Amino acid sequence: MKDNAILRRATDPEGSRLHFQPFPNATMSTRTLQIDDALYDYLLNVSLREHPLLTELRAVTAKHVYSQMQISPEQGQFMALLVRLCGVRRAVEIGTFTGYSALSVALALPEDGKLIACDISEEFTAIGRPFWQRAGVAGKIDLRIGPAMATLDKLLSAGSAGEVDFIFIDADKGAYDEYYERCLQLIRQGGLIAFDNTLWGGKVAHAAADDDTRAIQALNRKLHGDERIDLSLVPIGDGLTLARKR
Ligand code: SAM
Ligand code: CA
Question: Are residues 154 and 210 in the same domain?
Answer without folding.
Answer: yes
